[in-house]
Structures
1.
Amino acid sequence: PKPLATRIAFVTGAASGIGKAIATRLAAEGACVVVADLDLAKAQAAAAELGSTDVAVGLAANVADEAAVQAALREAVLAFGGVDIVVNNAGLSLSKSLFDTTEADWDLQHDVMAKGSFLVAKNAARILVDQKLGGDIVYISSKNSVFAGPNNIAYSATKADQAHQVRLLAAELGEHGIKVNGINPDGVVRGSGIFASGWGANRAKTYGIEEQDLGKFYAQRTLLKREVLPEHVANAVYALCTSDFSHTTGLHVPVDAGVAQA
Ligand code: NAD
């Protein structure tokens, strides 16, 4: 692949949390970064933290809306001349039990994560294929794509959908030199803004603990006894996009301090 310092990254949901950490790491390695998120002002503010508009731009793009995705990708190409790395990170977790999950909940989770990541991957892959320079597509899936737990049925189903998208796209895009990999984080509660959306409160209730103890709770159930931070997920995205992983596609990398094996 092209060296990271010459590459252009399109990161969805990058105004906060894990996406912001990914955008920050890729920018620190010299890549030009497009911060795509729901709210234009927040996306632009996050991009401004990364540098001038020569190296980072913020765009509004609801990933569940194909016209918006196409417009954002067009703007990205206009700004930087192409796209080399695509990170499907945008998401939300309603964290509800089976009987609390409504049809609207199911549709929202699937619109953003199953459909949204497909729309981004499909439209970005068109650009990558036409450029004939290979590229990387990385999905931020979840431990929940593989492991079952309580109170997360709609969310987890979309994560399993994303995991299979990774395998299907790896198969379809491999001949174009495009690698498609997934990352399965777990328990990233600090610095991500997810407490505000109710995710933390619901999870804490499920485990019968206080919300502020969630980070420690997750750390204790890992093999490494470590809290997983957004930066740890960003490190894995960076690694997958370097030449060290030039022959790896269709892989899912756990970034969970070992909880999935515990
Ligand atoms: P977050 O809420 O801090 O960030 C998610 C971002 O996605 C927000 O900026 C939000 O505005 C954006 N977004 C939501 N809907 C969107 C849409 N339709 N279009 C564009 N942007 C949209 O949450 P986070 O924890 O950083 O989550 C990022 C990703 O990581 C999600 O896909 C999530 O499922 C996944 N993940 C998180 C954890 C964790 O423990 N936090 C674990 C596994 C997987």
Note: The beta strands are 8-12, 32-37, 56-60, 85-88, 135-140, 178-185, 252-255.
2.
Amino acid sequence: MRDASCIFCRILAGEAPAHVVHEDELVMVFLDINQASPGHLLIVPRVHVPYWWELDEAHAAHMGVIARPLMQALREALQPDGINILQNNGRAAGQEVFHVHMHLIPRWQNDGRLG
Ligand code: 5GP
Ligand code: ZN
């Protein structure tokens, strides 16, 4: 359930700092430390599981459910032109933190980022 060497587990336990924007019994949502764009959020389940396919249905479903109001909050706060949902599984797919998570990345027209 928890990996002492995992930075997201340490944030979830209150042992490492993060700018938290939402938390409930299943997830914590905080700003990415290396913002791909302003407002870049990470939705992180309160269970140490490396990949989406290993995640239990309750956490996976809840991450999808709360993505919607979080996107609405980003739209109200920052007025982006679009928002990417990104979820990497495996080093080959760009995953760097092996505690499953979902990115919400606000986007602006011609913001110069790929994709
Ligand atoms: P991945 O590539 O695994 O999908 O994304 C991992 C994300 O976690 C990266 O965007 C990275 O900036 C972010 N990250 C890594 N360490 C920390 C940290 O200590 N705090 C926060 N808030 N984000 C982190
Ligand atoms: Zn972890």
Note: The chain has two helices and five strands.
